């Protein structure tokens, strides 16, 4: 049995979306057990009239809620009865609980994970790794995407190793192609940090490093993992997501601008629905925090039930594959290298 604690009071659509996502996840895996963290009365109310296996759900009563605008270090210390903090403490203290999923405050989750849960052996800094769809029907992971604004070459090598193992073990990608986000594809491009990182990645036998990547190629399908500092990676992911949404909106506006376009749009409606589903982040889960001693998955704040279910699925597969143990095995073969 794999136990996962779900913070049910962090996202824009909580707790209803979290509860519905939990029920959907239980239907996917017979050996999944979920602990719902939050106001128990409200959670039981969300479950009324719904079909689920009550023997595989339990409650962690937590009456407080952490807001996204609150100072992360303060709320972790002061809001001890919040759904997120109680879930983090349970994950830390109970060996039977394997993972945690939250759609709440990113800053609070990172602060809590680092100070309360800790890192895998050999890991300098954990890193976020969201997943995006590529134009050839595959997936690409971007690591890091917000946890570490300033990095060293060794951080980037560790991000490459962790994300490569993640894509291989959770998504079944054989020998993931790893690229370094840079201002050009040539090996000599970029600042000193990226030049040294390029050399380190080239020397790392456990990854399939294929060179530098320019941001415009993120969704090309040529890469399975993109390594970046947290600032650049976050900008890359959000710019890509935002551009896709704006283009869809522009396309919809153009279709409704003329009658003849509306006729064509009606004929192409199935294609547009597929395109919308392809670009919808709700279908790809959350951003996993690689490098923590236990599995942590951060869902988007606006996650609905489908996205919450996907986040739980990610956490389940990470634990099932013993991803943490595999990361430790590889990471500890290397000495830390600092710029």
Description:
With 339 residues, this protein is α/β, with parallel strands linked by helices. It has two domains: 1-123 and 291-339, Isopropylmalate Dehydrogenase (3-Layer(aba) Sandwich); 128-286, Isopropylmalate Dehydrogenase (3-Layer(aba) Sandwich). Helices cover 45% and strands 17% of the residues. It has helices at residues 16-28, 40-47, 72-78, 83-93, 106-117, 153-171, 192-203, 230-255, 259-267, 269-279, 305-320, 323-331; strands spanning 2-7, 32-38, 57-61, 97-102, 127-129, 131-133, 139-143, 177-181, 208-213, 225-227, 287-290, 295-298. It has a seven-stranded mixed sheet, with helices on both faces. Strands 6-7-10-8-9 form a five-stranded mixed sheet. α1 links the parallel β1 and β2. α3 (72-78) packs across α5, α6 packs across α7 and α6 runs antiparallel to α12. The protein is globular and about 60 Å long.
In short:
This protein has 339 residues and is α/β, with parallel strands linked by helices. It is built from twelve helices and twelve strands. Strands 3-2-1-4-12-11-5 form a seven-stranded mixed sheet, with helices on both faces.
Query: Strand order of the main beta sheet, please?
Result: 3-2-1-4-12-11-5
Could you tell me how far the N terminus lies from the C terminus, measured between alpha carbons in angstroms? 44 Å
> What share of residues is helical?
40-55%
Helix count? 12
Tell me the CATH topology of the largest domain. Isopropylmalate Dehydrogenase
Mean residue pLDDT = 91
Which geometry do the CA atoms define?
globular
Regions with little confidence, pLDDT below 50 for 5+ residues: none
- Tally of domains: 2
CATH class designation of the largest domain: Alpha Beta
CATH superfamily of the largest domain: Isopropylmalate Dehydrogenase
Cα gyration radius (Å): 21 Å
User: Which assembly state applies to the chains in this document?
Assistant: single chain
- Strand proportion, as a percent range, falls in 15-25%
Secondary-structure element string: EHEHEHHEHEEEHEHEEHHHEEHH
Largest beta-sheet details: 7 strands, mixed
CATH architecture of the largest domain: 3-Layer(aba) Sandwich
How many E-type strands? 12
Structural class: alpha/beta
């Amino acid at each position: 049995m794999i136990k996962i604690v779900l913070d049910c009071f962090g996202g824009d659509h909580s707790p209803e979306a979290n509860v519905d996502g939990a029920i959907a996840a239980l239907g996917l895996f017979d050996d999944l057990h979920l602990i719902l963290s939050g106001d128990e009365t409200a959670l039981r109310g969300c479950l009324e009239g719904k079909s689920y296996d009550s023997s595989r759900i339990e409650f962690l009563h937590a009456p407080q809620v952490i807001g996204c605008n609150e100072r992360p270090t303060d709320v972790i210390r002061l809001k001890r009865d919040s759904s997120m903090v109680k879930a983090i403490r349970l994950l830390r203290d109970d060996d039977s609980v394997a993972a945690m999923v939250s759609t709440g405050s990113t800053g609070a989750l990172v602060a809590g994970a680092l100070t309360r849960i800790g890192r895998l052996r050999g890991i300098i800094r954990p890193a976020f790794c969201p997943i995006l769809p590529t134009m050839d029907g595959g997936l690409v992971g971007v690591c890091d995407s917000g946890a570490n604004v300033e990095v060293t070459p060794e951080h980037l090598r560790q991000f490459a190793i962790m994300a490569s193992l993640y894509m291989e073990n959770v998504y079944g990608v054989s020998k993931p192609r790893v690229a370094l986000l840079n201002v050009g594809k040539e090996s000599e491009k970029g600042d000193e940090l990226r030049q040294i990182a390029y050399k380190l990645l080239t020397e790392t036998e456990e990854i399939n490093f294929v060179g530098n990547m320019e941001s415009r190629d993120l969704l090309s399908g040529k890469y399975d993992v993109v390594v970046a500092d947290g600032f650049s990676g976050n900008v890359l992911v959000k710019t890509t997501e935002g551009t896709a949404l704006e283009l869809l909106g522009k396309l919809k506006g153009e279709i409704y601008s003329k009658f003849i376009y509306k006729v064509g749009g009606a004929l192409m409606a199935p294609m547009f629905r597929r395109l919308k589903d392809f670009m919808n982040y709700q279908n790809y889960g959350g951003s996993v925090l690689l490098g923590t001693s236990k599995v942590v998955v951060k869902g988007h704040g606006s996650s609905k039930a489908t996205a919450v279910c996907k986040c739980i699925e990610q956490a389940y597969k990470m634990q099932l594959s013993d991803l943490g143990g595999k990361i430790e095995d590889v990471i500890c073969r290397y000495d830390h290298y600092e710029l």
